[in-house]
Amino acid sequence: MSSYPSINLNNLPQHIAIIMDGNGRWAKGKGKLRVFGHSAGVTPVREASELCAELGVKYLTLYAFSTENWSRPKAEIDALMALLVKTIRKETKTLIENNIRLYAIGDIKSLPLECQEELSEAIEITKHNTRMQLNLALSYGSRWEIVEAIKRAAAAGEDMKNFTAQTLEKYLETAGMPDPELLIRTSGEYRISNFMLWQIAYAEIVILEKLWPDVRKADLIQAIEIYQKRERRFGGVEPVKVVESTK
Ligand code: IPE
Ligand code: IPE
Ligand code: MG
Fold first, then answer.
1. For residue 17, which of 39, 81, 175, 180 is within the disulfide window of CB 3.0 to 4.6 Å?
2. How far is the CA of 212 from the centre of ligand 3 (A)?
3. Structurally, what CATH architecture does the domain formed by 13-227 represent?
4. Is position 69 annotated as part of the catalytic site?
5. Where are the domains of the chain?
6. Is 8 a residue of the active site?
7. d(CA 172, ligand 3 centre) in Å
8. CB of 69 closer than 6 A to ligand 2?
9. Per-residue confidence of the chain (247 residues) as pLDDT tens digits?
10. CB within 8 Å of 19: residues ≥ 6 apart
């Protein structure tokens, strides 16, 4: 039996995407520097990955750094990049033990060299893992991604006059992955902030009030429960039924 009885395993999102927001406010509330909030944001990253892997979610995408986040003070960016390197170094072993594949989406070449190296090493070591794929969205922005996809398609010699949605999808950072069915944003903010604009066309959006460093498995379970109560109609009239597995 599942350790999470409130969740219907026959109606799980295959792909969950999370806008992890509120680290700075969390730190401010404690009279600390914003960077302290980013460090505290590592625990919920671990909790989210563990929960999704345990449930059988196939893809988890975490928005960690946006193309717009480059406009932040240099000290904060440097601290975030250092935290990224440290966290990947520390957590790779756990990813291997849990059969989780690490992947990165975004303008990875714009990251500091040390981050790129640490990332590609962890991505390489975990590339044959099959239980779940953990995507880190780093220097990621949807507008960048879509423009880039069009350029890649043109460079690959695609027929631009007969361009289709399927052609574009082949060149997105998320090529080959299912679209997220559930998008979670924390910290009570009701916006998308340039995240997966193409892929979330029909995602269910759940906003959690908690700031990211306070988020634990129970909060994510609550978000999945909300998702499971939603009627998804995809532009039609009738809700699309969940296909019950025969297991
Ligand atoms: C999210 O927390 C983490 C990143 C964007 C890197 P913020 O740093 O945006 O925290 P708030 O939203 O200012 O509280
Ligand atoms: C979105 O959060 C980006 C990430 C979580 C990485 P921001 O805090 O950067 O977004 P805005 O500025 O509130 O829209
Ligand atoms: Mg924010």
1. 180
2. 10
3. 3-Layer(aba) Sandwich (3.40)
4. yes
5. 13-227
6. no
7. 25
8. yes
9. 579 999 999 999 999 999 999 999 999 999 999 999 999 999 999 999 999 999 999 999 999 999 999 999 999 999 999 999 999 999 999 999 999 999 999 999 999 999 999 999 999 999 999 999 999 999 999 999 999 999 999 999 999 999 999 999 999 999 999 999 999 999 999 999 999 999 999 999 999 999 999 999 999 999 999 999 999 999 999 999 875 544 3
10. 63, 183, 184, 185, 186, 189, 192, 193, 195
